[in-house]
Design a protein that fits this description.
- By secondary structure, this protein is α/β, with parallel strands linked by helices.
- The chain contains 28 helices and 25 strands.
- A six-stranded mixed β-sheet has the order 5-12-13-3-14-15, with helices on both faces. A six-stranded mixed β-sheet has the order 19-22-23-18-24-25, sandwiched between helices. Strands 2-1-4 form a three-stranded antiparallel β-sheet, with helices on one face.
- Strand 20 (595-598) and strand 21 form a beta hairpin.
- Helix 4 runs antiparallel to helix 12 (340-355) and helix 22 runs antiparallel to helix 23 (655-666).
- It is found in: Cytoplasm.
- Pfam families: ABC_tran (PF00005), UvrA_DNA-bind (PF17755).
- It comes from Streptomyces cavernicola.
Amino acid sequence: MAKTEPHAADSHDLIRVHGARENNLKDVSIEIPKRRLTVFTGVSGSGKSSLVFDTVAAESQRLINETYSSFVQGFMPALARPEVDVLDGLTTAIIVDQQRMGSDPRSTVGTATDANAMLRILFSRLAKPHVGPPGAYSFNTASVSASGGFRVEKGAGKTKTEKVTFSRTGGMCVRCEGRGSVSDIDLSELYDDSKSLSEGAFTIPGWKSDSQWTVQVYAQSGFVDPDKPIREYTKKELQAFLYGEPVKVKVNGVNLTYEGLIPKIQKSFLAKDKESMQPHIRAFVERAVTFTTCPDCDGTRLSEAVRASKFKRKSIADACAMEIRDLAEWVRGIAEPSVAPLLDALQQTLDSFVEIGLGYLALDRPSGTLSGGEAQRVKMIRHLGSSLTDVTYVFDEPTTGLHPHDIARMNDLLLRLRDKGNTVLVVEHKPQTIAIADHVVDLGPGAGTEGGTVCFEGTVDGLRASGTVTGRHLDDRAALKDTVRKADGALEIRKATAHNLRKVDVDVPLGVLCVVTGVAGSGKSSLIHGSVPASADVVSVDQTPIRGSRRSNPATYTGLLEPIRKAFAKANGVKPALFSANSEGACPTCNGAGVIYTDLAMMAGVSTPCEECEGKRFQAPVLEYRFGGRDISEVLAMSVAQAEEFFAAGEARIPAAHKILERLADVGLGYLTLGQPLTTLSGGERQRLKLATHMADKGGVYVLDEPTTGLHLADVEQLLGLLDRLVDAGKSVIVIEHHPAVMAHADWIIDLGPGAGHDGGKVVFEGTPAELVADGSTLTGQALGEYVGS
């Protein structure tokens, strides 16, 4: 039988990338096999995300967006073509990244998926007494009614007034407006009531009694006596002082607006984004504002009528409060042919939660409280039952936040997606996930400018023998310590009941490296973040993302720019503001951005280097001022390592700047340039930047939430050295972590479990890592035993 030629359509089995130059990539050319699982490895900052997300996935999304009409494209994010010569063989890309879900107080796990929408339809059809359509069961829909008349032309110049009424039934609790909690302001944080205004009663940051205009408005308003202690105010004076309506008053001959202190504080502080505030202002807001569960709806966010509308003895509030695995069983027991298609879809969604290891969540859990790993897995749910094939799925460290016990389950999901005929691209550091790859691409050899090249392409066995940084460290195993430090005190937690904790009593040792472990959802964060006494001197470095625009960079974020600007100003006899690209020194053409942005409506905006300052961001006269032989733009172009050396000695010596740079180098960020926009940093780099900033804080107890997130195997060793140095310097370090190397290195381990959700919330082990391995009764003990090879 004659051999038939392969069909032309079967020859496109590769995604070809040639000449990729996005961010730090150096003319990268690779071929990625389709319908296979390809893992991208390399140290943090080596260019993995630049290649996978900013090149392959970004171009796929851009090409898909171009298939829509210009009208529709106007509503979509405008994407620029990546810096690459050839991209061939692309398929539709579905990105499942680690971006935390929005922390909008109205967003929950249920609203972020389709589960809530389907439950609302179910209850609107079956619950008794009937409240209304699906919107009537939504805590984001308010009940409104209106009526009025409007004139209608009837022809031949005649008009007639018709009365119209409109009403909509919503499920929102009126008191808390669907938020589940009400806020209150602690007046003792605003002023000292034993003093008068003229004695400086205000304790609000920036409110000084003698010169501050805001304070003078209150003192000279005529509503209160500025020389009388606040506690002696009459009822009328106190009402005017705290809640007075806005009114014009004359202060020193100037017309100003007076309004009560409470609305003033709400507008000045509470209406602003907390993350963008200066640290001391943020600390004040956190002290002054207290949140309590809404007494009307008991935190359910729903109106009384909705809570009274039940089906099978449960209201929609009860259903959303159940753990998803229990809710799945409840839904499975409903036999109602009239809503059978809806029940099938809801059952599939809830079962996907359980399958992906999130059965311990409840639908009413605020989405902003999910960890990066949990948020990523919630996003995966809609893709698990998809019938689409020949799609490219792109994952950013899908094992983040997963206990070693759960990684096997995640691996199975990735392989299932591949076996359906999809291309799966995974950026990952964990050896367990690298091991299941069909194809591995290792980038490096270093980070930043020292990375951006392909060091290895091939099989996992080939990587192991390749001699690259990843290959050498792939089989690294941290050994258990021979001796552990002894605690010099304890942080006592008593009767902790936050979330799923069951009246937990535990002593967290101080003066040592204490690691808190347990499967995802076992109660680790609830124990440490939710139960550590407020009086404890704690510095918390959690996983919340850094807020920053493209004008923010490591120098501005860490406070490094401040001593540098002052040194430049002093050396040249000019103002410090000249040496800020966000202030007086900014190039007038680009306003200190270094580039000119041109908005092209539904097309991708174009950024071109500013011709006036040539991308240096400063006015030409500013660049003539020098310090240590360098101008300010040359200093911002230095890497942390270069700057550390530059500011260490000689005429350029600035001790304050050198101290900050040492901390940045300590956390492994020596390759970052001082002026690199924060928006270009990877997730791991941002967390380490935050850690470096907090290392200057005065707190005696450091709480780190999964600091190995985004860290390469080779960098974990450096992190362990940093944790040791913190403990040796007299600090107490508490780490919430799953990484076996960190567990093995601990002086003391507190293991929570035994499972997740209502199966967790108990301390199942306390002791040294060696005792945990010897005990072997917990999932963590078994995983650590396998890791150290016992």
